[in-house]
Amino acid sequence: MIAFSVSARGVYQTDQDFLNEAFNNEIPKSKVIWNKGDIHKNITDILGRNYAGLRIRYWQDSSQM
Question: How far apart are CA 16 and CA 30, in angstroms?
Answer without folding.
Answer: 12
